[in-house]
Each structure stands twice: as structure tokens, then as C-alpha cells.
Amino acid sequence: MLVGSDFRFGARAAGDVRMLAEWGRRNAVGVEVVDLLEVAGAPAKSTRIRHLLDDGDVKGASELLGRPFSYAGCVCKGRGDGASLGFATANLQVPPDRQLPADGVYAGYATVDDVRYKAAVSVGIPPTFAEGSRDNLEAHLLGFEGDLYGRDVRIEFVERLRPMRKFDDVDDLVAAVKGDIAWIEGNL
Hints:
By secondary structure, the chain is of the alpha+beta class. It is built from five helices and ten strands. It is elongated, with a radius of gyration of 21 Å.
């Protein structure tokens, strides 16, 4: 077994590394304890990563993970608002126990059948279309044409572009999405 130096287990986390090592000796199981990796002066722990995601800091979370924060899921039927505005989106099913970054719009990549596309990613309930909406993850894949329903897509989050906001009219929403896409095209 390989565990971090702060590893705890059991009821109320009463077990510690010393107890695990003792159990390992009695049961002929090797237990190796490693020091925690430090990034920017603090341990790279799951709690820290979850807090960064809660704040929408996908760059910080990715730095601690050593890879981009990502989510993979099956594309399901969405509201259809994106397509009607000229920005078709892949809506991914997200189980309620899966953590995503804070609600907002993100720049990232979407991978379908080993092909990677730049993507504008929306997380949360879109306030402009809040009535009848549910919390979701949807991505507009730049340059993709075709049908994604029922297919698996992996989303890599690169940077948060903006928080969610309600637009007064559809023209303002379309202008904001076009701005998001222009940023992604020029910076990813």
C-alpha cells in the first residue's frame, strides 16, 4: 500500500499511518508512506482541489492535479436553445455526486473519438433560460459537425472566462457567446 503521510482511516478517522504500518507488518502487507507533494507552499490535497473547483479556478486545480481537470460523459438531449441560436451544444449527463467547477463559462477542449476540439463550456443553470432548466454541463465544439447524441465526450477545462449571468435579450447573449468563442479561438 502506498499512502500519504497524513492518511487517516476508520470510524471518525481514528486510524493513522502508524496503525496501518503495524497492521501491514502483522499481515505481510507492505506499507509505504510518502510525503505530500507541495505546490505553491501547500500540500496538493483533494480538499484543496475541491475548493479551487468551487471557486471556478480550473487552472489552479489542474496545476495540483498535474493534468487538466476533466469530465467525461454521455451526450444527452438538451433544451435545444444553443442550436436555435447558432451554437449547437453537447449536453453531458452529470450524476449529482460528481463535482464540477463553479457555474460559469469556460474555455477548454472536448475529445470525441480521439479527436480534440476547442470548446466553449457552460456549467450550471443558464439564467437566461432558467425556466424549466436543470443544472448541466454543455459544450460547443468549435469546428465539429455531426450528431453527438449517445456518444461519449471528454471535456478538459482550461480557463474560466466568466460567471453565469442573465442577459436582457437574446442579442446580448449571442454577442457574449461570440466573444467567448473568439477568445477561445485566439488563445487556445
